[in-house]
Specification:
mainly alpha; Helix Hairpins; 2 domains
């Protein structure tokens, strides 16, 4: 019983001396870490701000603009290009291959709107 108390005390002392050593050798560690986090947040907000991804949700009734954003084609794209984009995206998002039924329905709806 006494030996376990001694070992626990020595372990606590070792942790204390180690922490004291780290704090004395790196006095500006907290400031450096805060600067690094701030730089990362600025970088992250810049890259997300210029993202090519559409930030909004789906409209209640799909518009031609939204359909073109979903399929990543121009609103004035010809039917061949719309069908090629639809096929490419459905290969990845088809429910039989593990994709979402909701997304595949939205892709089909977008193709129908742009293919008219």
């Amino acid at each position: 019983m006494a030996s376990s108390m001694i070992i626990a005390g020595l372990g606590m002392a070792t942790i204390g001396f180690g922490a004291r050593f780290v704090l004395r050798t790196m006095p500006n560690l907290g400031k450096k870490m805060a600067d690094a986090v701030g730089t990362f947040q600025k970088l992250d907000s810049k890259t997300l701000g210029n993202s090519k991804y559409y930030k909004g949700g789906f409209d209640p009734k799909m518009t031609k603009r939204e359909a073109s954003l979903i399929l990543s084609v121009s609103p004035n794209a010809n039917s061949q290009r719309v069908r090629a984009a639809y096929k490419k995206m459905m290969l990845v998002n088809h429910p039989d291959r593990g994709g979402s039924p909701y997304i595949s329905a939205k892709l089909s709806e977008a193709k129908d709107i742009l293919d008219k």
